[in-house]
Amino acid sequence: MTALDFTHDPHRRSWVTSAGPDSEFPLQNLPFGVVAGAVGEPRGVVRVGDMVLELSGLAASGLLDDEAQTAAEVAADASLNALFALGSGPRTALRRALHALLVEGTPHQQAVAALLTPLHDVDVLLPARIGDYTDFYVGIHHARNIGALFRPDNPLLPNYKWVPIGYHGRASSVRVSGTPIVRPHGQLKAPDAPAPVLAPTRRLDFELELGVWIGPPNRLGTPVRIDDAESHIAGYCLLNDWSARDVQAWEYQPLGPFLAKSFGTTVSPWVITPEALAPFRIPFERPDDDPAPLSYLDSPRHRAGGGLDIALEVQLSTVRMRADGDAPNPITRSSSRHMYWTVAQLVTHHTSNGCNLQPGDLLGSGTLSGPGAGSEGSLLELSGGGTEPIALPNGETRMFLEDGDEIRLRARAQRPGAATIGFGECVSVIDSAITYP
């Protein structure tokens, strides 16, 4: 796990004025991304405040040495896969070099300022080519809430506390924040109907998740040990795994999620590095009466700092709210503290059968609900399975998403003695279903 160093010092400031202590992207964050402008090919950048630093120009500037130079050269590409593959050493070297160039008092301010572009002048793109996408189910409060709707006497299935549950999702339909989601068609069957019908989903839902970008690969047939798992993580993002609940209810047995999930997944564009999140590591703990993880998922080092403390929020904005100039309304707040399985355990378990993960693969945490009212990570939970509408400040109500609704996921890591690290937004608007041919 990443050690703290001078790049985490909360008292240091950047000369980039928009990267102040109130910014989600201060000097202590420095996430990677890919952007495109009105002309030119997509290229890799680092975000600082409301600016992006062009890595191709930085690599050509002569201001970098050794590992930092190598990392900048590969990160300047149209995707970050090659940077992910390098691992933490070159990435950390580039972070330290960037910090030295962007901190107040640097003698290179003028040269670096010429490499900055305002964020509003570029389009943010998907940061990597995604080979595979796996969605997990690590939010135990979500699992209990959903289980209680269908199995009130036994909400958690017997395997939940023993094995990190996941399924293979559809990588081709993962899109960057800002891409609309088209309401999907699917087979729907009412309980009293003699047969299903093909129709647009009536129970469209969001899921509040963390996304994990995989870095260096493991070889096919070679599992990753729990104490090595962190070295295979390139960064984090927000992830919304959209769900058609009525389609899912009819199709999921016996093989699990399929078309109810594969129509769209939205991710935030900025890759928040493990180094930026180092101050927000927390111990991995289990209730005393829960079973201890099997030995391959456990170690003293992992127990000491395997968890993450990131505050999460979901905001909803309707067509009417935007027309009236109303701000998006927070409908739920939760935290990554509620992950029953850590990211390291997900990587370890995913590879325990010899499965090979590759740079740019994406993992979803699963819905991260909290233990109390107002912390549910989906509308299915917030509305009691579609029986209790949630009220919005303007008098509108929702049980599931309507056309034109906009969902925003937000996240911040903060604690006393550390600079606040933000993730930006993971946002999408629901478009009407297409007319089926």
Automatic annotation (TrEMBL):
Record-listed substrate binding positions: Y137, R151, Q248, Y252, T367
Pfam families: FAA_hydrolase, FAA_hydrolase_N
Pathway: Amino-acid degradation; L-phenylalanine degradation; acetoacetate and fumarate from L-phenylalanine: step 6/6
Entry keywords, A to Z: Calcium, Hydrolase, Magnesium, Metal-binding, Phenylalanine catabolism, Tyrosine catabolism
Residues that bind Mg(2+): D241, K261, T265
Active-site residues annotated for this sequence: H142 (proton acceptor)
Segments forming domain Fumarylacetoacetase-like C-terminal: 160-425
Chain intervals for the UniProt region annotation (Disordered): 366-393
Top EC class, one word: hydrolase
Cofactor list: Mg(2+); Ca(2+)
Keyword DNA repair: no
Annotated EC: 3.7.1.2
Protein's organism: Mycolicibacterium mucogenicum (Mycobacterium mucogenicum)
InterPro entries: Fumarylacetoacetase, Fumarylacetoacetase-like_C, Fumarylacetoacetase_C_sf, Fumarylacetoacetase_N, Fumarylacetoacetase_N_sf
Single Gene Ontology BP annotation: homogentisate catabolic process
Binding of Ca(2+), residues: D135, E207, E209, D241
Stated name of the protein: fumarylacetoacetase
Presence of the UniProt keyword Metal-binding in the record: yes
One MF annotation (Gene Ontology) recorded for this entry: metal ion binding
Segments forming domain Fumarylacetoacetase N-terminal: 28-127
Top-level division of the source organism's lineage: Bacteria
